[in-house]
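pasting for ref
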Amino acid sequence: MSPTIWAASKGASQQFIVHCNINTFRYCDGMMTKTFFRLIAWGVLSALVFVTLSPIGFRPHTITTVGLDRAAAFFLAGAVFAVAYPGRWMSLALFLVAAAFAIEMLQELSPTRHAKFDDALIKAVGAVAGIIAGKVALTIRRGILGRRLAGQILTPSEVGASAPSQ
C-alpha cells in the first residue's frame, strides 16, 4: 500500500502531510544529497593531492601496505564521485585515471618524493573500482526507493497501520 493511499484512508489532512513528506524527501534526495556528495568528492580529491604532494613526513601512517593505502584512497574518491555525479561514469573514470597519473607525476616537483608508474596504476585501478562500487550502490538504492514509492515495500509506520485489528 503506498503512503498516499494509506493516508487517504486516514483523512485529507494526513494525506497532505504524507504527500508533502514524500515530495520533500525527493527534493532532499535530489539536490541536497548531490551537493553534499560533490563537496565531499572534491574535498577527498583535494586531500589526496595534499597527501601525495606533501613531504613524506606528512604522509599518514597506517597498518596496511602502501599499495593498499593508495588503492583504498582512490577507491573512496571514485565511489564518492560516482554518487556525486551519477550518469557520468565514463567521464569520471577518464578524469580520475588522468588525475591519478597527473598527481603521481607532480611528485617529481618535490625533492623528497618520487613518481612511479606502478603507484599511479594502483591509484587508477582503485579509482575505477570505486566508481563501479558507487554505481552499484546507486543502482541498489534506486531499486529500493522505487519499490518503496510504488508501494511494494511498507515503512514501519505503514506496517503497524495496516495490521489487522483484533
